[in-house]
Automatic annotation (TrEMBL):
It comes from Zooxanthella nutricula. Residues 60-88 are annotated as: Disordered. It comes from the Eukaryota. This is Uncharacterized protein.
Length: 130
């Protein structure tokens, strides 16, 4: 199958979509079945040491997952705070430029825009609530 064979088509039903996905990506077996499918000539199927190590690994991975989620949330908050501070600095700088009356020096020039278009823009800006 090509990668885009369903592009633009009606979505498949869930069962059919899962079957198509299984073509390339088989879902993992539950751990109990994975353990039972190991070779009994090499491994003990219910090896206590192996099961204990797996339990520890699973707990460690859960902790990592929780820490990563917490850190992602904290990072998102930091990013929002950074963007907010940047917006405030930008608004403060634009206010200072307007007060000084030198907006055209930094590219805030209206250019060759007719007065009618400027009036329309001002009317639209004053009509829309911030």
């Amino acid at each position: 199958f090509s990668v885009w064979w369903r592009e633009g088509k009606v979505p498949l039903p869930d069962y059919t979509q899962r079957r198509v996905t299984w073509w390339d990506h088989k879902p993992k077996l539950p751990f109990d079945l994975q353990v039972m499918s190991r070779s009994k000539d090499i491994h003990k199927i219910f090896d206590e040491k192996f099961l204990y190590r797996h339990q520890l690994t699973k707990a460690r991975n859960e902790k990592r997952k929780e820490r990563r989620a917490e850190w992602a949330e904290e990072r998102q908050k930091q990013k929002e705070a950074r963007l907010q501070a940047q917006k405030e600095r930008h608004q403060k700088a634009l206010g200072a430029v307007e007060r000084a009356g030198c907006g055209r020096l930094i590219g805030n020039s209206t250019g060759f825009v007719s007065r009618g278009i400027l009036a329309q823009r001002q009317a639209k800006d004053s009509a829309s609530p911030p």
